[in-house]
């Protein structure tokens, strides 16, 4: 059985790699057909541009500037979203109070937020706020969903055995929240980066990725534009994985076993 | 202090499950609640444990009583191993080695560290029983604790329960007269 699984995995991976190759090839062919670097840069050129960028110190400073702010916004959203979800689970009043706020934030276009926020705060720290606002509804909804999915029968068991809150959290609540939290982190980090960079493109704070992209657009440096987009994708995946790894190391036993449990 | 149930009534939707139930549970005795399937045995002990509320009637003598329970379903933390499941309900002073000894005594020596979701139904039942017996308690309630065990194991578990519940008040639901006899229990019949 285990060998079977491995073979299937290998096959799956092979398909994945083939699929990625296919799209790259299509991109390469497309760029040759269009034959205008300004409209569509070829993947090889984009990669070369990226390698060149990597050699600048400014490149790394820029990445640090933007990531620091966007990840800060994300982490704030993680803490505050979880906190609100717990309070909302405990109290109907808080739930009713927080829900309209979350709904409005969810429904408002990112652009409105960015422009509004520019009136309130400096463009330098705009991306912290924007990434926070984009991520907080995701964290809130998912954690609340996880809390609502706790097994009522286990909670009754805890009550009969007079388990204290710490034990209840460890044995019942955290395992129930974890799968939801993990998907919230995956979705949220991507959202945070997309919205955060959008904020930078509009606010144009110095030394930010957004500023670099804005300039690339201004001077029709399409290769750079593509390269920076690639960078954003890569760092957002990097931070997503980093946070998932932290969660996995904290709750290793839970996660492996919970996965099997959900499969059953 | 004895536990007294006075005129307990409970209905689900239109169905009257418990009708004017009265009983006295004397401190330190073992009781078997017997009755047909669907008679309301589980409902009765759930009311006693405070998991559900009766429609009418009164229970006295349950205040601040430390309860341990084997529920109709196992209600274990599925992805935790047996030892962890049991330590969860024990006082801080409980030794892990004592828990392991208890599990070995009921034939789970080779399954101490496996997540209980990987154990068979009968093994999980035994974990649930050991959990109830290791917890600090004055009253032990067991809802068909030997469900899914073969005859030999059942006899072994009856002896084990008997030994571990000395001096405690026990309420045990069963279909099986032999279990009641084996435990020297007083029998309470519930009519449907
Ligand atoms: N939560 C519930 N909602 C509706 N009906 C219920 C519920 N719990 C039990 N019942 C009904 O009450 C009756 C008694 O159930 P139960 O106490 O589980 O019986 P027993 O444990 O003696 O087999 C059954 O007919 C069952 O269908
Ligand atoms: Mg029952």
UniProtKB/TrEMBL annotation, chain B:
Occurrences of domain ABC transporter (ranges): 3-191
UniProt GO molecular function: ATP binding; ATP hydrolysis activity
One Pfam family named in its UniProt record: ABC_tran
InterPro entries the record matches: AAA+_ATPase, ABC_SmlMolc_Importer, ABC_transporter-like_ATP-bd, ABC_transporter-like_CS, P-loop_NTPase
Name by which UniProt lists this protein: ABC transporter ATP-binding protein
Stored SMART domains: AAA
Alphabetized UniProt keyword annotations: ATP-binding, Nucleotide-binding, Transport
Membrane-spanning intervals of the chain: none
